[in-house]
Amino acid sequence: MDILRLLLAIVLPPLGVFLQVGIGFHFWLNILLTLLGYIPGIIHAIWVILRK
Length: 52
Fold this sequence. Notes:
The chain has one domain (2-50). The protein has helices at 2-11, 13-21, 25-36, 38-50. The chain is mainly alpha-helical. It has four helices and no strands. Helix 1 (2-11) runs antiparallel to helix 4.
């Protein structure tokens, strides 16, 4: 399941974060980072998924 989340984090970072933690601080932070720049959103999403 983590591989699917990682692939989704690369394609659509907020979706990968949502599947990992739900709607919370990290989800909204990831949306903000993705809007400011796609790469920071990907990095944050991968960090959230791998830190569990």
